[in-house]
């Protein structure tokens, strides 16, 4: 390689790095607008567990460890959101480049503008990693290189949230079937990749196992309380049963949030956590064996999962955290030098943030529905053009969105943040299809002349 070629290669690398950094900063526009990374009520638990090195009772420690490491040991939370956004950006770019090499930055830029992805990237929460996990599954299966890298990314992101495990397990056979039907690969190669992802899922479960063991009964009981299935069962069975919860059957919380988090909630009404797990575990077991409860338990996830499909507003839970709140205390303890930024952020001005979110979410919802329409139109053209890998990806992302909705809403509660985690992938896919069609149309005359 002569000196001119070396300079050209160096220039290409520099341009690529600068483009990636520019896209990452664009994806962080919500954090810059807010004046600081945004927060959800659960953020405080992640902040604390990473520094205490103790797995919380209701979630894995993985993101807490990520937060402690990427914040440089408590130096700044800006480094944390920048790192997770950089990972999101690199993964999204690789995903886009599976289909378009010319103009690959455009779909990423478009999705940053017309979707709520920046609310995910800018937030000190695990939600941003759900879409990274889904894209890494596609990249490991369809990409011709760096498969070990994407397997590692999948393993880490799968371990970020408890819901990722069932979502990944349900998607694995579908991904194998779609790949076999649309990509020129034998069953042997397809199942080899599937087994690789399955092994990575098992590794991720090691990190998730402690939190799953600690919290399964409590979270599912909260879901049953919100669906009123728990209340109905207790009123039928308590006259003859000996559950501790029977003493509170007439004052059961009406929502999962009240059940889990309120000071007067059920989770705070037992003398200790072991007694609560044992009692709730017995109730759930008996409900699963009770014919009336079985029918109700089957209907509820279908109803709530269906409702979740159209519930995906960005910025849910980005409320005010005043002095004295749990999150404020943890920021003051671990990031005391950034407390001024935390207190002065736009999120602590609910009136201003609420108005902005209302306008943005109306725009995002219209953009999402338009993106689905565009995808329906372009998929036919791309399938006819033998670009069937994109069809595979689109069907897979659609399945991932549906499964994610039913897993989260069907087992816990309907919440906009559960839908928002993946809904932004549809504007991204629509932008990819448009760029692909434009580039393909421009190159078609040149190919015909040859």
Description:
It is a single chain. Helix content is 73%, strand content 0%. It contains 21 helices and no strands. It is globular. It has one domain (21-206, 319-449). The two termini are 30 Å apart. Helix 18 packs parallel to helix 21 (425-449). Mean pLDDT is 87; it is low at 446-450. The chain is mostly helical and 450 residues long.
Short précis:
The protein is mostly helical and 450 residues long. It has helices at 3-27, 29-34, 43-52, 62-70, 77-96, 105-114, 117-121, 128-142, 147-158, 164-182, 187-226, 229-237, 256-261, 273-289, 291-309, 326-334, 339-344, 350-384, 388-411, 416-423, 425-449.
Descriptors for this entry?
450 residues; mainly alpha; 21 helices; 0% strand; 73% helix; single chain; disordered C terminus
Strand content: under 5%
Radius of gyration from the CA trace?
A: 24 Å
What separation lies between the terminal Cα atoms? 30 Å
Give a quick account of the main beta sheet: strands, pairing sense, barrel closure: none
- Categorize the overall geometry: globular
Helix percentage range: over 70%
Number of helices: 21
Low-confidence segments: 446-450
Whole-number average pLDDT? Answer: 87
SS elements, strand count: 0
Order of helices and strands: HHHHHHHHHHHHHHHHHHHHH
Structural class from helices and strands?
mainly alpha
The quaternary structure here is single chain
Our count of domains comes out at 1
């Amino acid at each position: 390689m002569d000196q001119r070629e070396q300079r050209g290669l160096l220039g290409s690398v520099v341009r690529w790095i600068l483009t990636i950094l520019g896209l990452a900063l664009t994806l962080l526009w919500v954090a810059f607008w807010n004046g600081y990374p945004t927060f959800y009520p659960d953020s405080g638990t992640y902040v604390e567990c990473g520094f205490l090195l103790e797995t919380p009772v209701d979630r894995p420690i993985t993101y807490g460890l990520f937060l402690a490491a990427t914040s440089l040991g408590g130096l700044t939370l800006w480094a944390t959101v920048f790192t997770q956004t950089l990972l999101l950006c690199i993964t999204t770019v690789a995903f886009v480049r599976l289909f378009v090499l010319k103009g690959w930055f455009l779909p990423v830029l478009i999705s940053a503008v017309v979707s709520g992805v920046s609310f995910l990237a800018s937030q000190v929460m695990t939600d941003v990693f759900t879409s990274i996990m889904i894209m890494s599954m596609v990249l490991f299966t369809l990409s011709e290189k760096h498969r070990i890298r994407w397997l590692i990314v999948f393993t880490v992101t799968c371990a970020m949230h408890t819901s990722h495990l069932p979502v990944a397990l349900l998607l694995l056979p579908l991904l194998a079937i779609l790949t076999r039907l649309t990509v020129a690969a034998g069953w042997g190669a397809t199942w080899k990749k599937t087994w690789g992802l399955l092994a990575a899922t098992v590794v991720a479960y090691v990190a998730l196992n402690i939190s799953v063991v600690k919290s399964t009964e409590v979270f599912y009981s909260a879901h049953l309380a919100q669906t009123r299935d728990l209340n109905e069962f207790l009123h039928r069975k308590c006259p003859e049963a000996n559950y501790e919860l029977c003493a509170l059957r007439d004052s059961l919380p009406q929502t999962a949030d009240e059940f889990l988090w309120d000071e007067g909630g059920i989770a705070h009404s037992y003398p200790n956590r072991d007694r609560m797990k044992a009692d709730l575990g017995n109730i759930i077991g008996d409900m699963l064996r009770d014919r009336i409860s079985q029918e109700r338990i089957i209907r509820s996830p279908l109803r709530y999962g269906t409702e979740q499909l159209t519930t995906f507003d960005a910025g849910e839970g980005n409320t005010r955290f005043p002095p004295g709140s749990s999150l404020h205390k943890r920021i003051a303890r671990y990031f005391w030098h950034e407390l001024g930024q935390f207190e002065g952020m736009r999120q602590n001005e609910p009136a201003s943030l609420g108005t902005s979110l209302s306008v943005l979410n109306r725009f995002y919802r219209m953009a999402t529905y338009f993106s689905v329409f565009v995808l329906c139109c372009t998929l036919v053209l791309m399938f006819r053009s033998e670009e069937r890998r994109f069809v595979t990806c689109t069907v897979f992302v659609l399945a991932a969105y549906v499964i994610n909705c039913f897993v989260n809403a069907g087992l816990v509660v309907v919440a906009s943040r559960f839908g928002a985690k993946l809904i932004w992938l549809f504007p991204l896919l629509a932008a990819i299809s448009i760029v692909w069609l434009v580039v393909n149309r421009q190159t078609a005359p040149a190919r015909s002349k040859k």
